[in-house]
Amino acid sequence: MQIWIGATALVLIFIGSASAEANFEDTRCRCVCPSTMYFVGDNATEQSDNRRRYYTMTNISPSICNPQSVVKGEVTKYVDEMHMDAFLANCDCRFESRNTVMLKVVVIFVICVIMLLVTYMAFLLCLDPVLRKQRFQSSYRQQNDE
């Protein structure tokens, strides 16, 4: 049974590593800025993206995780050039990284524990009729010694 669990874990690790490379980014720069509606110039006509506050750029080095490189290109059409420096000064940028390998290991561990519990439950379900037969076969005789 331990070999079966180990083989299942290896297959899950292989499948997870093959499919997860394209889906997840390990590093990102996330900037939180005030609403652009307070910094819009008089000539701005588009109001569609005025309320956006979070700006994210993936696979960026920590040295260039700043509002100039992450936010400025996104808000140039909404924020007036005179107010651009004030807007960028109010942005808070943080470099974030996560360990996807550790996430994969935890998920595989949880799946293995669930599979082990399901196997144990199936074993108990198969064992239950056998135990019931043994219990009914041993007849009980009442003792009448008075």
TrEMBL record:
Its main location: membrane. It is found in: Membrane. The keyword Signal applies. Coiled coil: none annotated. InterPro entries: TMEM9/TMEM9B. Residues 1-20 form the signal peptide. Keywords: Membrane, Signal, Transmembrane, Transmembrane helix. Belongs to the TMEM9 family. This is TMEM9 protein. It comes from Ancylostoma duodenale.
